[in-house]
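Hello, quick one for you while I still have it in my head. My current little project is about how a certain protein chain folds up. You're getting the sequence in one-letter code plus the fold written as tokens. Would you mind checking whether the tokens look sensible for this chain? Here's the protein in full, and shout if anything looks odd to you:
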Amino acid sequence: MCFWLFALVVSSFSPLSAASAVTEKYSAAERRHWAFQPRSNPPVPKIAGASNPIDAFLLARLQKEGLRFAPPASRLTLVRRVYFDLTGLPPSPAEIDAFLQDRSPKAWEKLIDRLLASPHYAERWAQHWLDVVRFAESDGFEYDAHRPNAWRYRDYVIDSFRTDKPYDQFLTEQLAGDEIDPDNPVLRTAAGFQRLGPLRKNAGNQEVASSRNEVLTEMTNLIGSGLLGVTLGCARCHDHKFDPIRQTDYYRIQAYFAAVHDKDLSLATPEQEKAYQEAKAAHEAELKRLRQTMEKLTGEEKGRMLQKIRNLEETPPEPPPAVFSVLNDMSKMSPIHVLARGDYQNKGPRVFPRPLGVLIPDNTPELPATTPNPRTQLAKWITDPSHPLTARVMVNRIWHYHFGQGIVRTPNDFGRMGTRPSHPELLDYLANEFVNQGWRMKPLHKMILMSQAYQQSSDSPLEALGHEKDPEVTLLWKFPRRRLDAEQIRDAMLSIAGRLNPKMGGPSVIVPVDQELVNLLYKPSQWAVTKDPSEHDRRSIYLLHKRNLRLPLMEVFDAPDLQLSCARRESSTHAPQALELLNGPFANEMARSLAARLDREAGASREKQVDLAFRLATGRLPNPKEKAAALAFLKTQPLREFALAILNLNAFLYVN
């Protein structure tokens, strides 16, 4: 073993002294990393023909490489691109025609404003945030118990995006909503953010030391990756090996959450609470009676009684409505110690709340353990307008979702092992604009969408040179072509099949899946399919987010597993995707509905059916070759098979 590797291993197992918990300093070199520096105020480059600052920054770099933007995309391409981007849904033929027929100079801007005001924008962009915070409605691990009121957090996020809530307020409410107003249902719902991580249960006891340590670890790790864009979790067991983050930093951030405990806020009326308590008492009494009866039985009768008891245990009375949330309990505050190797049984010095040392002056004192509302203090630090990370990280995420990659291509890691920004001045310019415009996202969206960079074609006359100098299209010399993600594919199928239920909000929907998948659950009764079939056709964001069961269609198209913060969706290509689209029950059901729609709206004319199918699925009419192939296919195959083929088109699955 080389000396460097030996030293690395030894250092990771070295216990910290009490002195090291309070005297560590940060060198000038450690503080020099770009992400830890204050944001600059770069001037907008003066580039001929660039009226949008974004274009000026991008073109300044492209010109150095001998590149330029691709020609403008067609209006037909743009309308489909922006609909999927902002709403996650395809435009209808009528919506496409309305845009194409509007020849006013502000047609594009009016379309952007309308889509940003649409509730579908909030549904689409809320999903991005739910990816980052690994939102789920079950605990994960073996038991994977459901969280029946967690859906309120999802609705809170959607509503926050709909109203363009300032990002600093959005974060503050999630970090400290219960401290700000413990009786406010909206703020308590926001604070449910702190309970979103997977939860390992030990015979139902969450107060044992190992479980409590895991809960605090989940809270702490997400602050680093989700909000600050740093791999804070790498400092749990030892000082970070690459970034200037000490192990003490990790536990000082954790100390902000030392008094946090799960605590729902009841929304029940007195009558509802009384009815629930009576039903609960009756349920427990019946269980007690059956258990006493079972003691007197033997053989098959005892086995049948045991099954009856188990069935009753799995169907307790439904609790009254409540908010899935947290609350400080100072009497149960967990003393936070630096843990050698992250082992809760190997405690080092005790630490107290303090921000990351590399971002504050050396020897900044910790907060006293008795500090009231510590998470409010954490929120103030994270949302300080001058914080070097918060605005940069969120701006980079927004850029990433518009262009398929961020200015920093590792959205959860702005540290030394992450990628450096392709356009650092542009990142700082946008972060400054974000803060100066009140931390609001919609103006930033609009600036990006109004740029030439966004409106350019995905085909460039400089393809060979571009791929030679910038094969990943990081410099945006053309618009990156992208495949729809899992939710977009499912929702688009529902939309063009005429089946999409536009209902918003409320308890999550459980849709039918193969019984073989259900049988793999710890308790198959957890997958109780929603009785109203029309609910099954709602947007994917309203489906139950269960950690131990992902829908096959969603899984093969790279939906995240909900265990960790998802910085970016992968876009893999493999055989099971084709199998799911050709043979999967959902795809075939949508094909049947699409065929019925074509027959209903286009009549018996095969040509009209083909034209309508292409317009619904791809936004355009078929070209002569496509039309000839479709008509020939329909001479020997039923309309349903043609509809299924339409759902498998690249022109449906990809956005240019």
